[in-house]
Amino acid sequence: MPVLFKLLKLVAPNWKAMALATFFSFLTIASNIGLLAVSALLIARAALHPPILYLMPLIVGVRFFGISRAVFRYLERYISHKTTFGILKEIRVWFYSCLEPLAPAALSGYRRGELLSNLVNNVETLKHFYLRVLAPPATALVILMVTSAFLARFEIKLALTFFFFYVLAGIGTPILIKILISGVGQQLVKVTTALNAHLVDCIQGMTELTVFGHKERYEQETRKLGKKLVGLQGHEAGLTGLANTLTGLLANLTLWTLLVLAIPLVEKGELEGIYLAMLVLAAYSGFEAIYPLPLITKNLEESLAAGKNLIQITAIQPQVQENLAYPTCQLQEASLRIEGLSFRYDENEPWVLQNINLELLPGERLAIIGPSGAGKSTLINLLLRFWEYEKGKIYLGGYDLKSLPPELVRSYFSVVSQQTHLFNATVKENLLLAKPTATPEEIIAACQKAHLHDFIETLPRGYETYIGEKGLKLSGGQRQRLAIARALLKDAPFLILDEATNGLDAVTERELWQELAKITGGKTTLIITHRLTGLEKVDKILRLNEKGQIKENGPLSY
């Protein structure tokens, strides 16, 4: 139930639009009832050959209801879908705003495909929450009251009979379908999420799977999940057909029962014969509002399962807590001091960094060297406030790092990481992530410094060329140079180069290091590397051993 209340809270701001869409849904079905009822009454009166003027109001009524039904249906669909899309937009923004502070520390246990499925498929599933869960019962209830009141004006027994069958179809059939379809909605969401996550892994790791001979195993897993999903969808489709059949059966039973009850009333003179067909068809057409109801339980189950997946993630507490002590703080100097820093990812795991001490003055260059797993990248993640450290102190420009908002801290750093993410956008758009207000001249200057401008000029559309998902239309070295250009364009006080020349050939690497030595002059720079190549002009070096302890701290010596 907490999930249901949360979903209701998310859609509540749109209650006016939802109420308006429900109102037009009622008018649509009411117009259909009016069309059939007035048509039946027109035919019955016409059979008595009255003057044509007596039939004119009914003729106008048929035309009015025929046209209004189409108009109201259009308005209902337009408003309901516009409202639904607005709700989905708000849910996506809400989910992403909750998700972003969790990355990367609190999301380390999730696969990319799972997060993608939550952001896309589970949010998309919630479109049924309003369209197929909230709106249909409201419309059906209003139709029940209005139609029953209309029948009661002629004969209370007809109204009670209609009420009985209508409630039986609106409540009994959904209960039966719920019993038969129990758990299918949850399984559909679960299997869909698993299949999407699996497909993302397969596509992103296609090269590795092929090289190491695991392609067939992953294909079999894909077939297995696909077969299970098709089976669930087939079961759902079968029950949908059964639900429509039962609803149609009860609608027809209502029609025949009303005829059985009404005909004797006509014979006794208690009901005029011209109203017989009108009353029966009005009751029969009222069942149009019932057809969506049997699958409400399935749609509700799917919505709750999807909502639960989203809420489970958003309920996670961020590793780094927001602190607004200095929301507009401007560093007086780009200095860095670390005192007695120790860090581990979990209290039951070994220390990754132990008793780290260093001081970096404004404009100095520090190289951090050590084997894989020594904690070099972990130290960078702590500086960027992706993780929270337990012991020690970090001071940035004289401020305690924990006292600064994470977004503010990150604005002071330009970072080139080992695995830079590039979006499926143009070269220019990927560069503008670093500085949205950058001018074309600034973009070109940054690319020239990164030895990338000449290559970009050879592309079909230059800086407007799309580089593909994760930049796969570029080589590894080109992607890395684009990342360096992006970092240079940001022009932050601190520059972090985490294996910045990874993927470059020896000649280009040497040239780029020479260029970086020039452009980093005056910037406080941290260089993460395994090798001493290009470190001739660094001011300090910090060597870490495999236990995350300082092995050497001081000037570079060869």
Describe this structure in words.
- With 558 residues, this protein is α/β, with parallel strands linked by helices.
- The chain has helices at 2-11, 15-46, 52-99, 112-125, 127-152, 156-181, 184-204, 206-211, 215-267, 276-285, 296-314, 376-383, 406-411, 427-432, 440-449, 453-458, 476-490, 506-519; strands at 336-343, 353-360, 365-369, 391-396, 399-400, 413-416, 494-498, 524-529, 540-544, 550-554.
- The strands form two sheets. A six-stranded mixed β-sheet has the order 6-7-8-3-9-10, with helices on both faces.
- Strand 9 and strand 10 form a beta hairpin.
- The two termini are 66 Å apart.
- The model has no long low-confidence stretch (mean pLDDT 85).
Q: Which helices and strands, and how do they pair?
A:
Blueprint: H1 2-11, H2 15-46, H3 52-99, H4 112-125, H5 127-152, H6 156-181, H7 184-204, H8 206-211, H9 215-267, H10 276-285, H11 296-314, E1 336-343, E2 353-360, E3 365-369, H12 376-383, E4 391-396, E5 399-400, H13 406-411, E6 413-416, H14 427-432, H15 440-449, H16 453-458, H17 476-490, E7 494-498, H18 506-519, E8 524-529, E9 540-544, E10 550-554
